[in-house]
Amino acid sequence: MMLDVTKAWSDKEIRYEQQLTACRFSPCGQYIVAASLDFDLQRWNLDTDERTSLSGHPTWIGDLAFHPDQRRLYSVDYQGGLFCWDYTQAASQPLWKKTAAHVSWARKIAISPGGSYVATGGNDCVVKLWTADGQPVAEFPGHEGYIFSLAFHPDGKSLLSGDQVGSVRQWEIPSGKQIRTFDLTVLHTRKENFLAHVGGVRSLAINASANLLACGGMTNAKSNAFCPGDPLVVMLNFGDSTEKAQLKPSQKADGPINSMCFLPDDTLAGIGEGAMGASLAFWKADQPAPVHSIKISSGYQVDLHPDKLRLAISRFQSNGRGGNGRHATPETYLSNDGVIDIYHLYDQPAVDGDAAT
Amino acid sequence: MNHFRCHSPEHEFSRRQVLGTLVGGAAGLGANGLLNPVVADELKSQQKSVLLIWLDGGISQFESWDPKPGTEFGGPFSAIPTSLPGIHVSELMPHTAQQMHHLSVVRSMCTKDENHSSGVPRILRGDPKNRGVTYPYLGAAMAKLKGDSQSEIPNYIWVKPGSGGFIWQHGGFLGAEYGALALGDGKPPVHINRPPEVDDVIDQSRNDLRKQLNARFRNRRRGAEVNAYESSFEMAEKLIRRKDLFTDFTPQQLERYGSHHLGRHILQSKRLIEAGALFVQCHSYHWDTHADNFNMHLDLVPQIDKPFAALIEDWHESGMLDNVLVLLMSEFGRTPKINQRMGRDHWPEAWSLCLAGCGIRRGMVLGKTTDDGVWVDTTEYDIGHIFHTVFGAMGIDSLGAEYHYNGQPLPIAHEDCVPIKELLA
């Protein structure tokens, strides 16, 4: 199959009765796992659609990541917990867990390319490095806001972390020496009358050849209540830290770019959030406008399948009228749903019937 | 044409502006007052005050007074025990949790309006029955019912972010003189300092001239308009004499209450109350978390938790809490449903507020919501009940006292509601 994002199509929609946030394909490609707001991980077998819940987190799960050994899955939660699971087994007990890996929320997790290290970050503003068995290796203090995003360099020798106040830092692995910082304050807003920081570096992605670093979020936030802003990706030349382009979605949206990933041809896929909808957008690194865009409801994560030809997104799905006030009886007042869409990033093959015509 | 009317209710405050804005709102002032003047005199003889802390936009009940961790709509935060055995609040309120034995929390508020624009004034006016008049805000009502025109401090002061001014609209049918003196960013009127070239003699001369002009003006207009004009001037003059109320806070005070807006404004409100203000409304904006509700509450709730707990503790220790009623609330709560931007929308169906101090029973949680926090599961209370209760705690017979407006008797609180006896000490 030839990669062509402009021909992207979807034939699989997985719906769940709670909102889904983080989602990733397993390295074997057989499963997709998503974090749901009922504190569980939901694992779907893509061949059979069978769903299994991995239960144990005491609160919302911030993020999840697969180890390349095709057995272990890691997840972090909003009470600072770090859990390790054997996702190939039906049993829902974690292999091990650290309930206080971080003080307060653990928001993000990343696994080094070779699988030697696990990095976590959260509201204590400290990046923590662990062995794959959960032994602490090092702590990297220095951020001045919550850590919102993590990404390992493809060579595994450094780690990038992005925070609430628009700073991205590169750390040497495993020493924790800070190599450099990137100024992404364009993604952070704190006006004089705001009660809180708005925005931040919500997502990071680095391409396979490590010459491009994408930093996602939103800029120019108008308030800390509705938090409306302009979604933005700042594409940097990784080598010299210079800005290559500012990428914006073509679909109207007012929330941050929550997640991004590079495709094999260095096209960037990004997914954003919006009160009236958002988009899954595909950009070339030097072009502000996307080469293709798919309108969706608010999206939270995008992940590339190991076959490099499929993409999964987790997104919001309304379940009855929302907004202000009740508009429902007690029997019909239900939480909103979550959906995972799986897109094929190539031209849809003609089915027999189409070919006949 | 009325040259005194100001169409901007929140402009920068100065003596001159006060004079210019107030009289226009005085139209309609007439025989307004309590039906029974004896009752009014009794009320005014008592030394009690109210501090209303208003979180504009709506704090989430899930992330504050009524946590439901582990439930469908509960969100990520856990609940922590409080100084009241068996009672939990959100983990975002560790300081307040330690003061719960001084507080009364109502978890069964159910009100009628899901919009800010109509809901804020509706709540702050007590949502009375429609009788073709505009009711006063709670602060204005209190100024009417218990205010002392001879007080050294204005009766109704509004400490708020942004600009200040004289907000005559709060007076409703009571008239402009019962409006709020708004202190923008908690700061004093901009012309609080008399220019150095104006000495006492000059100042006296210009005051005499003003009084002379007022007297001439009074001959051609209804007296009430001039009364309002005079009272606004006096209001400014009172604060000009009290520059000591606006000195810098100490590092220790800021450490205890917080150096952010709300911490400073609660400190300023505390000063004003302790100096004798009858009613202070301390306002914080930007609680309307339609997006990023959980990140926002993570940062916002501590900004009320710490200063509120410090205030309660300080006033308890000084004995002030016996004389000051503190009311902490918003216009509604927030939806159980989490929306597409991880926010919560407006939810008047089941929400919480907190009362403490003067006339209020301590260590009380009234009402409950369903296990999932969506609906009230016990008796529902509307804002009318709260008005009755606040009046009752302040020694006002809310079921007996009435306003009298152009010959029309008007209840001071919704006649279908009553004081919540469980809350009254």
Could you explain the architecture of this structure?
The complex is a heterodimer of chains A (357) and B (425). In chain A, a hairpin with a 5-residue loop joins strand 6 (61-66) and strand 7 (72-77). By secondary structure, chain A is an all-beta fold. In chain A, strands 1-30-29-28 form a 4-stranded antiparallel β-sheet, with no helix packed on it. Chain A folds into 2 domains: 9-40 and 189-350, no CATH class; 56-183, 7 Propeller (Methylamine Dehydrogenase, Chain H), CATH 2.130.10.10. Chain A has one helix at residues 352-356; strands spanning 9-16, 20-25, 31-36, 41-45, 51-54, 61-66, 72-77, 82-86, 96-98, 106-111, 117-122, 127-131, 136-140, 147-152, 158-163, 167-172, 178-183, 188-189, 198-199, 203-206, 212-219, 230-237, 243-247, 257-262, 268-272, 278-283, 292-296, 299-304, 310-317, 337-344. Chain A is globular and about 55 Å long. Chain B has a 9-stranded mixed β-sheet with strand order 7-8-6-9-2-10-13-5-14, sandwiched between helices. A 3-stranded antiparallel β-sheet of chain B has the order 1-15-16. Chain B has a two-stranded antiparallel sheet with strand order 3-4. Chain B is of the alpha/beta class and 425 residues long. The interface between A and B is large, with 44 and 48 residues.
